[in-house]
Amino acid sequence: MEENFRNFRNWLIYQVYPRSFFDTNGDGIGDLNGVTAKLDYLKDLGVDAIWLCPCFKSPNVDNGYDIADYRDIMDEFGTFEDAKRLIAEIKKRDMKIIMDLVPNHTSDQHEWFVESRKSKDNPYSDYYYWFDQPPNDWKSSFCGSAWQYDEPRGQYYLHSYAVQQPDLNWDNPKVVKEMQDIVDFWVDLGVDGFRCDVIDRISKDFEGNRNLFGPNLHKYINALFGREKTAHLFTIGECHATDIDEICRHTQADRNELTTLFQFNHLRQTGRIDKWNPKPKELRTARDILTDWQILHQERDILHTLFTDNHDNNFFLERAADVRELRYESATCISTLVFLMNGVPLIYQGQELGCCGSHYDSLDDFNDIESINMYHELIEGGTTPDEAMEKINFGGRDNTRRPMPWTAGENGGFTTGKPWITMASRYKEINLETDLASDKSVFKFHKALFALRKAEEVLCQGTFTPLHKAKDNFALYLRELDGRSICVVCNFEETTKIDLPEAKGEILLSNYGRRDGDESEFRPYEIAVYRMK
Ligand code: NOJ
Question: What pTM value is reported for the model?
Answer without folding.
Answer: 0.97
